[in-house]
Each structure stands twice: as structure tokens, then as C-alpha cells.
Amino acid sequence: VQLQESGPGLVKPSQTLSLTCTVSGGSITTNYYDWSWIRQPPEKGLEWMGAITYSGDTDYSPSLKSRTSISRDTSKNQVTLQLTSVTPEDTAMYYCVRRSDLWNEFDYWGQGTQVTVSS
Predict the structure, then answer these.
(1) In the predicted model, what is the mean pLDDT of residues 43-67?
(2) Residues 49, 54: Cα–Cα separation, whole Å
């Protein structure tokens, strides 16, 4: 399984960040796998943002719920992240990650994409 993030590397404050994760080697609808977005700001730890399940249900971090939306395009085998009203504090490396429900572990990671919020 391979995950590839894509999207703009630079976003202006107050705009909406949109990232796409393209999955190959496996279907995003395969039972018991969820697809998460995780980010890591500079010199900080990993932060789980939210996920979409194999059945299309979503779950979000309480701290980001009001600004985050995760969706999918099953025809393209893609998962999309949207984060509204971004600020410089949203500057981070963003990762698309698969999680196994059965083993409760993140087993496949994309290489990540750097997003900088700046005017």
C-alpha cells in the first residue's frame, strides 16, 4: 500500500487548506481500515486531526472539529482534507496514514507534505 499526499505548499492566512491523499495498492473501502490525517508542526509532536472509515464515517479531533472536513472519492481512491480559516499555527508537515481497526495501529504512512501558512 502506498499513500501520496498532494496540495499547495503555501496557503495564506484565513484561507482554506485542501490536501489530497491518493492511495495505491489497496482500496480505501476495504473493511477495517481507516484513513487519517496527522500533522506535525515544527519542533512539536504529532497531532491526529481526523479520519474517515472504510464505510465513509468520519471522526475529528475535538480541537479541530469546527475547522476540519475529511471526505473521499472512491472512484479515484482518494481521501481529502480541508482545513478552514488557517493561521500560521497550522504550518506543519501533513501526513496521510492508514490505521488498522483490527490491530489498532497506524501501519502505512505517506511521505508527508509541508504546508506553510503565510501572507
Answers:
(1) 97
(2) 17
